[in-house]
What we know:
By secondary structure, this protein is an alpha+beta fold. It has helices spanning 3-13, 19-33, 46-57, 62-70, 73-76, 81-102, 109-126, 128-143, 150-170, 174-188, 190-225, 239-249, 269-282, 324-343, 351-368, 370-375, 402-409, 411-415, 461-482; strands at 230-236, 260-266, 284-285, 291-292, 305-310, 316-323, 383-387, 393-397, 417-422, 425-427, 439-443. Helix 3 (46-57) runs antiparallel to helix 4 and helix 6 (81-102) crosses helix 8 (128-143). The longest helix is centred in the middle third of the chain and has 36 residues, at 190-225. The protein is globular and about 100 Å long.
Amino acid sequence: MTIEQVVQRIKINDPEADTDLVVKAYNFAIKAHGDQQRKTGEPYIQHPLHTAFILAQMKADLPTILAGLLHDVPEDTKVSSEEVKQAFGEEVASMVEGITKLRKIRYRGVERYRESLKKMFLAMATDIRVVFVKFADRLHNLQTLEALDPKKRIRIAKETLEIYAPIAGLLGIWRLKWQMEDICFKYLYPEEYQKLEYKYEIERKVELTQYIQKIKNTLSRELDEAGIKHRIEGRFKHLFSIWQKMEAKDRQFDEIYDVFALRVVVNNVADCYNALGVIHTLWRPNYSRFKDYIAVPKPNGYRSLHTTVFGLNGKATEFQIRTEEMHQESLYGLSAHLYYKQTEPGSQDKPMRWMQEVLEVQKEIKDTGELIKQIKLNIFQDRIFVFTPKGDVYDLPKNSTPVDFAYAIHTDIGNKCTQAIINSNISELSQELKNGDMVEIITDKNRKGPNSDWLKFVKTRKAKNRIKQYSKKFRLSDIKKMIPGLK
Ligand code: MN
């Protein structure tokens, strides 16, 4: 990988991008890493270069790509984040710092796992782009996993499969999720992987590719005739998802029929429905499998029309019909969405607004129990995430109240709180909080201290201790006042 390749990839997204800055970051990183080497024996700079390239593929913005080039500088070299800040500004430096913090995440059993997820959510809440860099970093590390010792390999693969891949899915970055899952599959279940790879890649793919080609030809002709501009791609499901299906349904590979899908990419939403009409005229649809995710998008924002028809020789054949924008979003998720928003003229969307949408998505998915399934969030069953108006996240026990939240922020805020505003509604201090609530605490600086009645409803140990401490101190000082000379 060379810096020219990275620059070229960036220019595809944005011909106007300030690529001098990219070259500057590259030179900065080269100098900082000096003659460090990767475990693979390559010069270290290859790693940040690949990371930046993956980010450019994800259509990340320029500061994110710069952060990708610089992400290992403060951790692994003598150059400090202060120097990064001087050279590239606050925005890039704080992202690099965020990535450095995330590095402390290690998979060591359930406790660690919970801690890791919490850190991820926290990073997402501060700047979602930090998580994108972390994903790109992780993907390249996975691609070079062979160089590590087996024990470390397994640990990284496990952590990726349990934490990174589900979050990538949650954010709708499917391409990344598939790539990560297949690599992890290979290392965690080598025998199953090889067996399936052989069956799929060697035995079936030739036959399937021929079939897909025939369908493509027929459909393309009809779409041309109807005047619908289009592009058709055949897509094979990735190995890990097939294997999961086989496990879940206890089936053999030959019994899993939906191992491929055809994607029809058209110019606009109207043509999506027009193309659907053409497909249904050519082949009889199985209506029970028709899904209109354009009219009703999935919680993570995914949009497309899905239909399965009885194709040539009655073979079940799935089509996914979408516009180019929907297509990019389905591959790169939020980052692509952000990209399209940014390139819309007069767009005011800032990443922060985006974050709020992510949180909305998280809330919704959590409500349907989908997230619990995806991220095994049952570890969190007894925890809730509550947000400050600025977007900081606090992780509290279930049924916590605004008083617990206030003490979690700061003892003084707890001691002086008088009222809470929960999701813009004035609420009692004893009101139970729910996951995703945004809470503002109103304090009264003249307030003497906490009310011991709060002990009846607070849930956290911190709040309990502080309230008890305060009332003890208070009583003691009262007694001292009453009995002069007592120490
Ligand atoms: Mn790295």
